[in-house]
Amino acid sequence: MVSRQDKKKQKRKKGKWWKITLLTVAFFLLAGGGYLYSVYNDAKQTVDKKIHENVSSIDTSVGDKKMKEQKPLNVLLMGVDERSGDVGRSDALMVLSMKPSEDKINIVSIPRDTRTTIAGRGTVDKINHAYAFGGTDMSINTVENFLDIELDYYVKMNMEGLSGLVDAVGGVTVNNSLQWTDKGYYQKGYVYDKGTIQLNGPQAMGYVRMRKQDPRGDVGRNERQRQVIQAIIDKGASFSSVNKIGSILDVLGDNMNTNLEFADMRKLFTSYRNVAKNVETYQMTGTGTTIGGIWYLQVPDAEVQKVHNMLQNSKEGQL
């Protein structure tokens, strides 16, 4: 029987990292679509010299060919938790499938506790451990093996960059439903009053990390994460943030990596811009199980096949 705690772990992890990723790309594309040349040039330099990073597991010439022919593209989105002295793990794994012929994007979230074979090691473990064992390449290979798909690009964002993004947009405003004092992440005694509150970067990190003082546990933490991400999007999209693009690019340059070059991003904007008209999200599901004292999510073969079909543009897998 699955315990209440196991059931909580199975609750849907909302797609917070793809929102950051799309916001990031939007800033670059906006820079190329009408802002001053100096802003455009700064964005290009940031992407191509700091953010761009090829990986051996993906042949970008395949994706380039697909892009020219406007065929579906699969992008792995990774939200990683990397701190000083720690190799980190992927806190969020999602596959974004852009389908220009349907003007649609499918975003599939893969729970981080999913039990699967880690490509390149031959061991069975939680899928998010692939990043700790072999970085981006092993994560890509493991996801491709798990879903039997081909990934064309990847985008990786470090969770620690969230604090910098909040400061770069000038802080955020959220509606806090719970009165509490931070005693965990920063242990600096930040007080979070109930109601509308203003947060700087470090305060925002404490806000999204807290779990133990919230009777809703992970559910409450996920809600706070969505609040902060939405607040960043709203603040970053405002006209008042145009003069902050330089600071935003600095943060992204230190916390984001992708094998997309700036020219690729512009091609995506011009050739695939209509896919954003219809965004469909899906959370993979399974059964919680404990093996050797470790909790896993066991995803059945039928669920894996459904997602494979979904990403391969098969009618059988339509949402």
UniProtKB/TrEMBL annotation:
Keywords (A to Z) from UniProt: Membrane, Signal-anchor, Transmembrane, Transmembrane helix
Gene3D superfamilies referenced in this protein's UniProt entry, alphabetically: LCP protein
One Pfam family per UniProt: LytR_cpsA_psr
UniProt entry tagged with the keyword Transmembrane helix: yes
Sequence ranges assigned to domain Cell envelope-related transcriptional attenuator in this UniProt record: 89-236
Annotated InterPro entries: LytR/CpsA/Psr_CW_biosynth (IPR050922), LytR_CpsA_psr (IPR004474)
Transmembrane segments: 20-40
Family: Belongs to the LytR/CpsA/Psr (LCP) family.
Name of the protein in its database record: LCP family protein
Native organism: Pontibacillus salicampi
